[in-house]
Amino acid sequence: MVTQPHRPPSIKMVRGDITEQTVDAIVNAANSSLLGGGGVDGAIHRKGGPQILTECRALRAAQYGRGLPTGQAVATTAGRLPARWVIHTVGPVFSPTEDRSALLAACHTNALHVADTLGAATLAFPAISTGIYRWPLANAAPIAIAAVLDTPTDVQEVRFVLYDEQAYETFAQTWQEWKQ
User: Fold this and answer.
1) Which of 122, 147, 151, 169 is least buried, going by the fewest C-beta atoms within 10 A?
2) What domain range is 124 assigned to?
């Protein structure tokens, strides 16, 4: 729960592997099944180990029988990862004919809300929806950054952890332009 007037967290851009981040929580660009998949989701499940899948299965059985809705977020253990928790969120599939930017922003906002309930001070995000969901990086970066800056939170540091050079450059350039 946010206890002070809104002061955005510090934002850092990191080129690297989100599964190697020593933070309180990492955000998983999950699929709605919560049962693992490719990309970031698959890497988190592989490196984090079976405890993550066990908790995801329990969430499916208890609350999310039809899967986690797009834009929502839920937490599990981080298993063997250096983080304490994984916050799973389902990004929207990009559509050139329908504006789904509010759903992409909601992924970030809801992940921050979950981080607050956990007491997480540091949080690492991937570039949600920019892989197999085909969201253009140049469009996703300002949505993600704005959502983080606009969300009241007790999280003190947000890292955008970008796996490849193109994603890193796009997010870093967007952040530099934002600060000017």
Assistant:
1) 169
2) 10-179
pLDDT of 60-116, one tens digit each? 999 999 999 999 999 999 999 999 999 999 999 999 999 999 999 999 999 999 999
Q: Is residue 1 part of a domain?
A: no
CATH number at residue 111: 3.40.220.10
Q: What is the pLDDT of residues 128-180, one digit of tens each?
A: 999 989 999 999 999 999 999 999 999 999 999 999 999 999 999 999 998 88
Structural domains in the chain (count) = 1
Q: Is residue 5 part of a domain?
A: no
Distance CA 145, CA 58 (A): 32
Closest of 47, 64, 180 to residue 55, by C-alpha:
64
Residue 110 lies in a domain: yes
Catalytic residue, from 17, 24, 41, 154: name it: 41
| Known active-site residue 150 | no
Strands ordered across the beta sheet of 73-77: 10-15, 157-162, 122-125, 25-30, 85-90, 73-77
